[in-house]
């Protein structure tokens, strides 16, 4: 068994030399425990930020889907798939019955029968990013039919999902993403009303053109200048869900401070940051709802699959650079 240990804090983009791959001894299973072998590991933006707040050396954090290959727990027999935060490791020993009860703990979940779909969806549309989209919409920005939603980071795991729920609710949905190919995918495949390449368009002009009734809800995945511009184009009493600020995560030099308060004050916006862990005790509600939409054909997904445990760092960097459409995952086995 092997695991990644972070030995150096990230500066700018993560590098292979920031990590060590370490061999792990696997102890005998105790009563109630299972041994799970990793199939897919998730690479997510929060890793870039979170690990720099840890005492090093530290095991690399990460969600994964694993198959039970040995079991001393009759409820979790060999062959079942589980997902949870086991880190960047090839094998994990865990007791799925032991629920740590501190607030915000996301439990180990058994992967439901996904029919023709791959188990990796438990890291994306039927996992953490899917729940971020579901609860972010339902509990934070609460769009009503006919309203206009703008999404940044729109072609990524969370953004592409948020836009589709926006369409299910009956909203006008406008996205910003980093390539023309991504924008074409959002409009042609996912039914976004408009999508723009934020690297090449004039953001103000794009908003004026695509949001004739201005913006009621803004789902913010990136932060920075574009967010201030969007807030200035919102309707009075608009709602902003601050999900992430990826434009600042890998910046080698601190980004320029963008003053967002004038838009917030003059439009009387409600701006709320959130962490999906807030809904840990409703975790299965989100997964079930997204699974129903998937089965009804109302929700589509796309995965960027990297291959091999040795390529974890390339996958993390690739996702941070925007190589992915939809969810970025690594197929380990
Ligand atoms: P994505 O699948 O969206 O991948 C990251 C994307 O970010 C890239 O594909 C890239 O797309 C975009 N990006 C990279 N650098 C920049 C930049 N400088 N400016 C704008 N966009 C950039 O990741 P997720 O869907 O997993 O996460 C999206 C956001 O949601 C992140 O900010 C993340 O931290 C946050 N998040 C928050 C959660 C919460 O509980 N609050 C939970 C999960 C995610 P492009 O080509 O468009 O630039």
UniProtKB/TrEMBL annotation:
GO terms for biological process: prostaglandin metabolic process. Pfam families: ADH_N_2, ADH_zinc_N. Its main location: cytoplasm. The keyword Acetylation applies. SUPFAM superfamilies: GroES-like, NAD(P)-binding Rossmann-fold domains. GO terms for molecular function: 15-oxoprostaglandin 13-reductase [NAD(P)+] activity; 2-alkenal reductase [NAD(P)H] activity. It comes from the Eukaryota. The keyword Oxidoreductase applies. InterPro entries: ADH-like_C, ADH_N_2, ER, GroES-like_sf, MDR_fam, NAD(P)-bd_dom_sf, PTGR1. It is found in: Cytoplasm. Its EC number is 1.3.1.48, 1.3.1.74. Signal peptide: none annotated. It catalyses: (5S,12S)-dihydroxy-(6E,10E,12E,14Z)-eicosatetraenoate + NADP(+) = 12-oxo-(5S)-hydroxy-(6E,8E,10E,14Z)-eicosatetraenoate + NADPH + H(+); decanal + NADP(+) = (2E)-decenal + NADPH + H(+); 6-trans-leukotriene B4 + NADP(+) = 12-oxo-(5S)-hydroxy-(6E,8E,10E,14Z)-eicosatetraenoate + NADPH + H(+); leukotriene B4 + NADP(+) = 12-oxo-leukotriene B4 + NADPH + H(+). Belongs to the NADP-dependent oxidoreductase L4BD family. This is Prostaglandin reductase 1. The gene is LOC118269411.
